[in-house]
Design brief:
Number of strands of chain B: 7
Order of helices and strands of chain A: HHHHHHHHH
Structural class of chain A: mainly alpha
Oligomer: heterodimer
Number of helices of chain B: 7
Structural class of chain B: alpha+beta
Strand content of chain A: under 5%
Shape of chain A: globular
Distance between the termini of chain B: 38 Å
Distance between the termini of chain A: 42 Å
Helix content of chain B: 40-55%
Shape of chain B: globular
Chain lengths: ~160, ~250
């Protein structure tokens, strides 16, 4: 099964529940098998199957709850480009520990968590992320920038506790 | 490029999304601006920390077996006309999985090694004391490593090549000690890492990483990796000089 472990890890981060993640992965593979004829050879298989998983999650009860309760800020690119200059990041990264980053990631809204995972864990290009999340490239960049800033803020908060 | 232009481009640069000319401008700025270099290093560390912390959840083998079985159930009728396309699909998926996993494993190993050494190079550039032995004399730098690393290496006579030896220090890769030598050409500083290739087999094949030029080769039981923001021609030139001394 292609990308089985990668999809499972991504599903766990989306749902934050192993049982729900198992259901999600199972449904993803069933949908992928049924809809394999719709996959166009030459296009990106990885983005295609991650998109199926993510869309399945978004229409699940947990997905609807997770996305309904969080409103992302305006994702205009201009705001991100100027705000990046003032990000206080020399901060905390000297002694990052695994558990702290794990906790901070879990605290992020799903939209931030998923874009970070696709970029930094799955090492997808912005174009692949755009295809997997069905959002424009500009939004990928601004959301990624915002997610990274939110992660740093979350880590700072946890370090102060 | 100034700081205000550089900082918003850092993420895209580290994600490998800048075109070559922009990436070069960012790298040039990082080499001369300690403030931005520190931010760059912090962002590299953050990317690596996310990658390490988020690769967490492993599926239970029983779950894999169950899902394989459930996918099998999807077959409408094993004797119907739909059976052959479904079998073909499963085979394509299985073959694709081997392909993707093999490719990913090889790439991630290379990328991990490169990321680790690129980090060390950036830290060296950002450091106020980049080397532990400061000398342009190869006959001073080479003996300094005696007793500190478990092998010996030769350094070339740089003559009028344009390159200058700045110094060196002990570096570590996966817990194994090696040498990091710093060279300079014009305003560019280059790290050359040397490790015992008997202790580790590192099949790095990339010629570039995070906008740095990279060269690696094996010689006389040693593995060399050259990394810096110099151009392709100078990268080759320094590699040939080092190989000549090999």
């Amino acid at each position: 099964m292609p990308l089985f472990e990668r999809l499972y890890n991504f599903a766990c981060w989306l749902t934050q529940d192993r049982h729900e993640a198992e259901d999600l992965v199972q449904e993803t593979f069933v949908k992928a098998m049924k809809g394999f004829s719709t996959f166009q050879p030459g296009t990106n298989f990885r983005a295609w199957i991650f998109r199926i998983l993510r869309n399945t999650f978004l229409t699940s009860r947990t997905g609807l709850q997770a996305t309904a309760t969080v409103s992302l800020e305006d994702e205009s690119e201009e705001e991100i480009l100027t705000s990046a200059v003032n990000t206080p990041e020399s901060i905390l990264l000297a002694r990052l520990d695994w558990e702290l980053v794990h906790q901070a990631l879990a605290m992020l809204p799903v939209a931030h968590r998923e874009v970070l995972l696709l970029c930094d864990v799955e090492e997808m290009s912005y174009a692949e992320i755009s295809a997997a999340l069905t959002i424009p490239m500009g939004t990928v960049m601004s959301r990624l920038s915002r997610a990274r800033r939110a992660l740093r803020t979350a880590i700072q908060g946890l370090q102060k506790e | 490029m100034d700081c205000e232009t550089c900082l918003p481009k850092l993420d895209a640069c580290l994600d490998g999304e800048l075109d070559l000319s922009d990436a070069r401008l960012v790298a040039d700025h990082l080499a001369t601006c300690p403030t931005c270099a520190r931010v760059g290093l912090a962002r590299v560390q953050q990317k690596r920390a996310v990658s390490a912390a988020a690769t967490t959840f492993k599926p239970d083998p029983a779950f894999r077996a169950r899902i394989e079985k459930s996918i099998g159930v999807v077959k409408p009728n094993r004797w119907s006309r739909g059976w052959l396309p479904l079998l073909a699909t499963v085979m394509v998926l299985v073959i694709a999985s081997f392909f993707f996993l093999d490719l990913k494993r090889g790439q991630s190993r290379d990328q991990q090694v490169l990321a680790e050494l690129a980090d060390q190079h950036v830290m060296t550039l950002a450091s106020a004391n980049p080397v532990d032995v400061v000398s342009t004399d190869r006959h001073t730098v080479k003996p300094w490593f005696e007793g500190k690393i478990p092998f010996a290496f030769n350094l070339p006579d740089l003559g009028n090549s344009g390159f200058e030896l700045v110094g060196g220090k002990v570096a570590y890769l996966s817990g194994s000690p090696g040498a990091e030598l710093i060279f300079r050409i014009r305003q560019h500083r280059i790290s050359v890492f040397i490790f015992d290739s008997h202790a580790m087999q590192i099949p790095v094949s990339a010629n570039a990483f995070a906008s740095f030029n990279v060269r690696s080769w094996n010689q006389n039981g040693l593995w060399y990796l050259l990394i810096g923001d110099l151009n392709q021609g100078d990268s080759e030139k320094l590699r040939e000089l080092l190989k000549g001394a090999g």
